[in-house]
Amino acid sequence: MGTNTVNKSSEITFGTDGWRAIIAEQFTFANVERVAYAVGEYIRHSYYAGGQGARLPVLVGYDTRFLADRFAYHAARVLISMGVPARVSCRDVPTPTIAWSVQVEPTAGALQLTASHNPPEYCGIKYIPHYAGPATNAITEQIACYLDRIPEGYEVEPVPVPTFDPQPPYLEALKERVDLELIGRSGLKVGYDANYSTSRDYLDRVLKEAGVDCTVLHDWRDPLFGGGMPEPKPQYLKDLISLVIEKKLDVGLATDGDADRFGVIDETGAYLSPNQLLCLVGRHLVKNRGLNGTIVRTVATTHMLDRLAELYGLQVIETPVGFKYVGEHMRSADVLIGGEESGGISVKGHIPEKDGILGNLLIVEMMACERSPLSRIWAKLQEEAGVRLVGRRADLHLNATTQRGLMDTLESSPFAEVGGQKVSRIGRDDGLKFYFDELNWFLVRPSGTEPMIRLYFEGTSVECVETVMADFQRQVDEILARYNGGGKRAPSDKVESGV
Fold it and tell me: Which domains are assigned to the chain?
């Protein structure tokens, strides 16, 4: 919903994409009431001002987490008791699906009860305005101002709550955005790991109706997510990787818990990073679909997109981390593709919100167009770009005081040289982005929700990137020695196949 907007009295913090907290600790029915009431106040002031016309409804959805459905109905009853019509989805629903629903008919937006890819003990809530994308900082700040408006001793009335089915119009929209006939004729064999998530009976239904041979894993609701995480990373996709290899499938697909992020395994069992997937989809839209437009990416996302944009004569816009910034551009400009390195993507003609279901379908459509293995398509992309980029991720786990001290020091006395390379310039739109040149860089950025600093490194060789990482750690250790608490770098989340 916003970035670091805190209401001290209620301990409710809105991060880059809503409020998330541990169930039964901060995430309680009482705090859901507070957030729902604040959203209701925002809607009354923003959508119903002047009392003109019918009151637009709010749609309410939820993911597969423990108590998420009950939290959703509780939030809906709060809204209804305030005079704000509300309807709840008839089952758990992907975030892109309920986002699509808010603009199918006139609405005042939606509430989605989800913690996305967070661990099972978390739940969350996010407000999606009528334009079907993430709430802007301005909207979040207004909602936060209403958190203390809930009356003392407020009780939710046990009113009946109507339901709705958001699936049919969303699936029809997918059929307009992807060539399912081409996919059906391709003969591709697909594995799909539903990850116990909301995407089950969405992605697999579309593929099977198109005539695709699709083998499905984990397509039931499990609030514990099989003992893992609802995140499409290789450590949580071992069953899918084994399935692809053993059955000799062409591709493996997965989503996160609310289906706004996606993951892909190629025919060799190799995991493709979100950065690679963004590049592949962008290339597909230009080369196979004949589309053009601006590429919008976050500050932490690969510059391979910049290289492709240079080849295709397209503009690149860089935003702070958070899909809400990408979505703002998608609502106001001719954007071909918008994406972020954490696995979020949307494309021209679709909603300004992340959609992992569509992302997966576009990868399959690309393979059907090119009639080539996914690993070969990626190799071709690198050949065309004339460069191979290597990406690395790491985290600095710090207490709040040390985190502020480190960032203040880097702000006032930034590194001039790291790993034997001179820093040519520093970007300050979100954290500090140190450039050696346009393809070799690293980003130091405080997390919006956790006591840590996120680190992103990219360069033209493994040796170069790892040398920079090692020297960065050395120089940071010297700074941290000045502060109590210290810090350490977590093991890097390596992307072995590049970017």
Answer: 5-165 (3.40.120.10), 169-385 (3.40.120.10), 390-489 (3.30.310.50)
